[in-house]
Amino acid sequence: MKLSEKTLELNICAQASKHVGSNQQLFWFGLTQKQEARAGFDACTKLGGRLLIFQFKASNRVLRSKKRVFLAPHDQLVALRTQVKGQVRSVFYAFPLVGNTAELKKNPNLLSQTWLVDVATLSSVASPTKRDGTPRKNGCHNVYVSPGKVVFHSMPVDVDAIEFYSLLQQGFPGADGINWQFEGSFDRFWEFSKNFSSGARGLVLW
């Protein structure tokens, strides 16, 4: 059975929280729930933590080359890039290389199979087109993901991929966090959160 984006999102977040245990506090919130978003932002501003955003994707399509193909709407990418504003390791795409229950049963460790891409590195990704150069009707990029490698199409753009497990172990080194730009205003934060789809989760580190 195919795993939904929400199922992967919830379980990856749960595994991340379990992994850090008492060493570090993680607070997750869903950007589509106003109360949870408000709680997350308040915690971030009061505790001085870094606010990181993850846009989760799901795919059960695997090519013969073993690469997994995800769809990434271009308008979503544009919104993410606009909001990043030069901050690095603060807004990520999350691509789990698990797409169905059979794969999950084989290896339930989702953290070691989820690859992150820093949206700040995607500035060169142009609008998606077909082979003849005309715009793709669905407005989505095909994103080919294999361990350690992510390629955004139409015009191929290779970007660095970071294993979620490794980054979590290191405490997200080099992450700027995006909470500074809201200047304590929930209205600004809420307007920012509207650019994300239901597959987005915020993480406050402190």
Q: What's the structural blueprint in terms of helices and strands?
A:
Layout: H1 5-20, E1 26-30, H2 34-47, E2 50-56, E3 68-73, H3 74-84, E4 91-96, H4 101-106, E5 114-118, E6 140-146, E7 149-152, E8 157-160, E9 162-163, H5 164-169, H6 186-193, E10 200-205
Parallel strand pairs: 2-4
Antiparallel strand pairs: 1-10, 2-10, 3-6, 4-5, 5-9, 6-7, 7-8
Highlighted features:
206 residues, alpha+beta, 6-stranded mixed β-sheet, 30% helix, globular
| Rg calc | 17 Å
- Spans of at least 5 consecutive residues with low confidence: 35-47
Oligomer: single chain
Strand content: 25-35%
Distance between the ends: 37 Å
Instruction: Give a short account of the largest sheet.
Output: 6 strands, mixed
Structure explained in plain terms:
It is a single chain. The chain has 206 residues and is of the alpha+beta class. The protein is built from six helices and ten strands. It is globular and about 50 Å long. It has one domain. Helix 2 (34-47) crosses helix 6 (186-193). Mean pLDDT is 84; it is low at 35-47. The protein has a six-stranded mixed sheet, with helices on both faces. Strands 3-6-7-8 form a four-stranded antiparallel sheet.
